[in-house]
Amino acid sequence: MEQLINELKEKIIDTLDLIDITPEDFKEDDPLVGGKLGIDSIDILELAMMIDKEYGIKIDNKELGQKVFSTLRTLAEHIHKNRKG
Amino acid sequence: MKGDRVFITGMGIVSSLGSGVQEHYDSLRNNRSGIKPLTLFPLSEGNRHPAGEITGFEWDRSVPRTHGLALAAAKEALSGRNTVPDAVIIGTTTGGMALTEELLRKGEKRPDCYRYHSTSSVAEYCAAALRCPGLIVTVTNACSSGSAAIKLALELLRTGKATCVLAGGADSLCRLTYYGFNSLQLIDPEGSRPLDRSRRGMSVAEGSAMVLLEASASAPEGAIAEVLGGGLSCDAHHPATPHPEGAGALAAMGRAIKDAGTASSGIEYINLHGTGTKDNDLAEAAAIRALFGGAVPPLSSIKGATGHSLAAAGAIEAVVCSMVIRDGFIPGNTGCTDPDPELKVSPVLKALDKKTGTVLSNSFGFGGNNACLVLGDPAAPRKTRPHGTAAVFEILGGACVTGAGDLARTIASLQEGKNCGGTLPLPDISKNLPAREVRRLKRLPRLALALALDARNAASQDPASIFFGTAWGPLSETYDFLTKLYESDEQFTSPTDFVGSVHNAPAGQIAIWLKATGANITATGGDYSFEQSLFAASLAAGSGETLLVMGADEHHEELSPLFDGSVRAGKDPADGGGALILKKTESPAGPCIAPLFFENYAASPGAIASLVRSLGGADGINATCAAVFAGMPGGEKASCRKQLDEFLDATGYTGPVIDYRALLGEFGTVTAAAAAVAAQCAKEGMVPAALASGAALQLRGKRLLMVGLGSFVTAMEITA
Predict the structure, then answer these.
(1) Chain A contact present for B409, CB below 8 A
(2) N or C, where is chain A less crowded by C-beta within 10 Å?
(3) How far is B188 from chain A (nearest CA, A)?
């Protein structure tokens, strides 16, 4: 799980061009949206696309998205639970 | 006396419900829906959602589908009459995209195949077919384009400068919008169910509607409805999500109702924007409750029947509202069976008979762009309204970006006799923009923001409304969106790029930054985009208002040479733009700019003679004009030179003629950069020696004429 969380930090920074954010700035249990990272609803959709592409997991509606993208940890747990193999 | 009231005297419509007014009447009366599985192009696995496709639509395949839809509606609106409209104002967001995206996927490199790509080509195609000699404006305001186009036409007719205008909107289905909305999770997999408790989004659709608008003191024979008013606003909140309380929607509805000379109590039916997305319907209902309080009139959305046809939607709904007035019925909110109690408004679920005199039609779009119209019974007696007073635009400040840099650097380079054409590196464009806040913005929105902020700083005033011209829109976002889509076999793409690809996204960004909640219009008129945005400003800006009028284009390595003949003719890639902060006033205290002339050369071969006459004839021009800034697009250089010679012959004018494209670069909105340079000359009271063919030229109260040549002949003046 720790490894997945670290991997996600890198992928999120890369996907969203968070140029002035380092992996250390991410706190696993902080809200992903609306915090100091500056992530908003369009970014979440961009991340949903990335999660589908990288892990083969669809997060294709707002209700599910709100739960899964609550924090970095909830996202990692969702991927861990649903990824194949 | 003409020009007092504006009537719809002809209308045409094509949507997933059918072709023509009669088929729409039948479909709407019987609560039919046109939403069904999409067949126009194959969809990838897992992404197959229903859409509002027009099955069996036939058109001249030498043009893209949008063009065919627009012309079909235009022809029905004219219904065999020989009327030639004085102006054509059409909203479209995709233009030739349905064809372009197929060509790009095939790797087609022949520029000629892309000649109908631009959004402007839709209105130009219709104007050519109808032989319209006058003003053409293409409005690219996302999903409020069609209504905004009708609002501009209404204002043009109110000035008395036109008596008959064709206005409307058109968009065909294409992969860009289908997969774009899909990536935003805004498509309802079960088909759109506006206002329903279980709604999950829209159904992307296609269509077109056009209205023939005529100015007259009383209802002419055959008048179907009267356009009583229109209101524009911008949320200035978010690129793709409406303001949660519907603040922008509320402002636009309020302005439309006020413009119509009525009150909310005078509205008897509301045709909702009602897309079926969670957020839109919530925000729209909140705005309606705020405006109408406990007296909400009957309301419904027809987008569960037609789907959401983007730029066409507002025009389609204006036609439907005209049918509501003429035929005495209210269409049902097809698709909704269990109204969402959270909305606290109750839609009319099934079509019903009801005589209705005054209706409000709502259209809202990306970029926070809102446009509302009020239509009424043409037979009702009304007070006529006087023509507006002749206000002018005082220039409070200007900015430009060229290959040389900002306005100061551009003028310094010009003074040294240097060519300023080029593409400024992205970090230079972004140097005053906070890195984190622009991380998602690519080249065009950064250019636009940099220009807007520079102009605002030069003027020390914030604009309320924004008029943005762009020939090609955000090319980087469009290219990146399609590239990602195709690379993944249409499985993945970027929602960020889709939101950014919308032509009015840069103007929406500026509105957010400057908190500009007034009108927000993006005009996409090819090489005449800046002129169109200034004309739009002259129609939509309120008296005493401060506004931003600007133009910008980006150079894209792949797309610019494919799309733009002048880019191919130019020596080096170039881009940039210009911006002016203006104040609409009756008593200017400094230099002013005014749009003077706009004719379609193909339908008006005497346009140069007509231009000379309108500028006061040879004597008038020679007595008042210090210098001519001539816009001669490189792709049409030979015909431009011929037109210029005709102008010089007709006037005997011997002053300086500044071929600004040769100095500032070949790109669509270089005219905006030239206008900023000319405005600076007016402010300083002189044209530098390097521009004025030898010696510095004192203006001594004379004006600078900006003349656009080529497919369109245009004129603007800048007075000291």
Answers:
(1) no
(2) C
(3) 10
